[in-house]
Structures
1.
Amino acid sequence: MKLDREDLTSGDCDENIEVPALRLKDFLSSKLDLLKLEINGCKTDVLLDCDEALQNVNNVFVLYRSSPREPQAVDLVTRILKDAGFRLHIYGEQKSPRPFLWRRVGSGTDMTLKIFAFRA
């Protein structure tokens, strides 16, 4: 089902909105070459739910963003991928060149990582 923006919001971005969702794990029962995850706010939960089904995936890309308002879970994301048999290659986007002195927060995130997971 395709939803238009008007279906998702009434103009107030802080409003909680329910939208229909499908379970990713249900789509991972057959072999898949690439899984790309760019999910705001719940990618760790999705990966935890899919951990056993990740055996059917050859490559995974995760765009990981952390918010200063929430606990970081990059260790959990990488552990799930490593436990599923992936080798990781991680790129960090430079947010703060001197993080001990000053930390830049842009678009609500304080860290962005591009995680490439592949079968070795």
Note: Residues 1-12 have pLDDT under 50 and may be disordered.
2.
Amino acid sequence: MRVDAVVVSYNSQAELRGCVEPLSALEGVQTFVVDNASTDDSVASVADLPVEVIALSENNGFGAGCNAGWRRGEAPSVLFLNPDATIDELSLRRLVDVLEGDESVGLVGPRILESDGSLAFSQRRFPQLRSTYARALFLHRIFKRASWADELVRDPSAYDGPASPDWVSGACMLVRRSALDEVGGFDERFFLYCEDKDLCRRIRAAGFDVRYEPGATIRHRGGGSAPRAGLLPVLARSRVVYAHKHWGRARAALETGGVALNALTHAVVTSGGREKRAGHLNALAAALGRRRGA
């Protein structure tokens, strides 16, 4: 097993060591901790571990941090793992087996369990106008397993066996280095959110398959949480950037409208108080600002 493990940290001191220490003990795994200009001295928590720390002077986003990490290594497989997640040796070996057993596979993701042991819906569909508007109008809460109503694959039985979803959660992905080289890694225009679906889309366009492998399991402590209020505008902006990148002008404009509608309806009905409402309204402004060319 030859794997470069990349963990991008931003103010992750409380959880970083729990993620990195098991990786650093595995034979054949070179661990890179990319610190995105943290202010909580995250790096100090792993200073005694056999890892290579890449301390960036500014935070240019998750994708930029991932790129800084994988380009430093040479292993044929690259593991991208969130700092609030953990993976054991058997699960990592199973992901490696998927890549080594089928040259057509460019990226594989594991089963993801939340901190309470419940299943995280990590298999995803590429965005469609119908799913964007369905979520804006809360139809995905009524038609919970309908493929047209949501990007998440919410049928638990879909997670029992191997699958080839459109894309998988970026909380944990093992990627073939040659595939990363071919597509150029992460698109750094996505500061946070949508960089994983964009990567999977480009890897598929390059002729590789994307797989889900239930024989590998990770624990993700942040898996079930919705974006914090302050990150809602970042999510909205990334969705609009994704639409303008992959769709024509008319369809991208309709997607922008759906993202804006989603922010507006959630601002109206949110039970998260003033802070959450402000976050949704800021997301509305972010979506419309991007539409005007901001």
Note: The beta strands are 3-9, 29-36, 52-56, 77-81, 85-87, 105-114, 123-124, 167-168, 172-176, 209-220.
3.
Amino acid sequence: MRRIFRIIIPAIAGLVILIGLGMGWMWFREDRGPSFRTVEVKRGDIVATISATGTVEPEEVVDVGAQVGGMIRSFGKDARGKTVDYGSIVTSGMVMARIDDSLYTANLNSAKAQLQQAEANEMNARANVLQMKAKLVQARQDWDRARKLGPSDALSQSSYDQYQTTFEVAKANLTSAEAAVEQSRAAVAQARASLNTAQINLNYCTIKTPVNGIIIDRRVNIGQTVVASLSAPSLFLIAKDLKRIQVWVSVNEADIGVISEGQTVTFTVDAIPNRIFKGRVGKIRLNATMSQNVVTYTVEVNTSNEDNKLLPYLTANAKFKIGQKEGVLLVPNAALRWTPRPNLIDPEAQKRSQAGATRRQGRGSRPLEEQKERGVLWVVRGKYVRPLRVTVGLSDGQMTEVEGRELTEGLKVIIGEQNLETAGGPPAGVSPFTPQIGRGFRQGQPQGPGGPEEKRPNP
């Protein structure tokens, strides 16, 4: 019997002690109230921006194409004396490529022969006019003599009629000969035009650069055949000046209203991660595009590229500066997003909030121009929290400008509720002396032997 009492009495005493400690912990938790994570309101500078993605583009690009079809026979030389290729520097009039001109040379020779034939026909027609004029003179003289004699014993009626007919035919033949001259002259002009066309087509076999610049794309190889039946095929892409470059940025329709010409823009490229480039908005294109029901506008940003670090078609991450303020009160965005549980709000603050809402409803809504974006910050008041209504200003995505009558620099505002579980303690409302079976396992997964994260004792 004594042995039983020796076992039971210490067990009961230990249980009483555990219960007492647990009740003390609960009393301590209730007396202390909830714990919050806070930050101080700071004074500083803020720059509000809009982020968007774009592409680095040369300011002016010339697409050099072929106006005749044929096989690429050879490439020309660039300013350094090397065969033109990607990155070659070229000047206006420099030969870039040559197309096989055998067919076009033959067409030119044929056009020359046709022109010579047309010119010969014109000469023949002019000589025929002279001949017709001489016959007309002879016929007019014979007709004049016949009219003087008239039908008589010296001139029969048939001879008289013959002279008249000969004269009329001579006039008609002269008119026809003169028309033939005009026709032959037109044939000469047509033949000359055909010759010019053949010469131009032959010249087109030599591809020359129309501008000074640098080749950023070569789209053909020697031996490749280009076809120019419907449209001019593109052979080379030349950037006139890579020291002046643009960024074509796609801006969402919700943000395009705050973009204007001359606006400051900063951007980065992944190829040069530690450098920030600057530019200004040059133009807002009005031909918007729609993708998956999202409307975007292309904004041209002009920037300098004196050191040639920016390469065409790099992806740029741009930020449009839409506002800047100095020496204003700032809070993290998390402070404006946090909302307490109803049981944590100061009852007096709740009453004042309800009374204020009633007064605002009685006054009606304010004019649109007087309305400002409002926000609420929360500060600790004993065991509770109370709201602090503020006016929200510029935001850079992390910090936000705020204004308020009760807002002062250094004031601590709540950004979240302290979670003892994340700090390594027991769950809220649970005594630290209560055995925590299975702690360290993820919720909803099997525990103990056979589980995915079996907790093994230290050896």
Note: The CA atoms of residues 79 and 140 lie 75 Å apart.
4.
Amino acid sequence: METPTDHEIIRRVRGGETRSFIDLVDRHKDKAMTVAIRMLKNREDAEEAVQDAFVRAFRALDRFEERSSFSTWLYRIVFNVCSTALSKRGEPLESVSHAEGDGERNDEIPDIGELPDAIIEQKEFKEIVLDALNELPPLYGGMLTMFLLDDLSYEEIVKITGLPLGTVKARLFRAPAMLRDAVLQRMDLKEIAR
């Protein structure tokens, strides 16, 4: 038996099989949670935001026009819920100015051969990268997660964030450099601590 598509599940839910919505939740909860954690920097807040986003998605499912993927539509809801939560906490969505870092950078993330021997251990390096990713401003962390980890296109991120394509490209150009700087700083601190 073939696995039903998101659109097929949505049609079932609209047809009265409301319990089928659980299949959509199961299918998309992990990625939605990853974006929420990157933006809110707190697991409990992220869980609450994702739950709220799924409730909103369920209530608005009749208005979903199926012109885009369900995941893109859901990410838009998650993004908006997280943005609202940040606003209520008085935290900026983006703490890097628009003018800052607009120039092109020719820096590259070092390959594994350039890393200090003590950091080469994969698990430790992964922890450093995840910690650094969590420290990025919410907009950058969320967008980088969607682009790199969830493999969303620029166009899908435009639909989710509501930002112009040029702005999305600029942020996604800057975010890896910010991540690289944070990783290298953490690695330097680890070397000093040894």
Note: Helices lie at 6-14, 21-40, 43-60, 70-88, 122-135, 138-149, 154-161, 165-193.
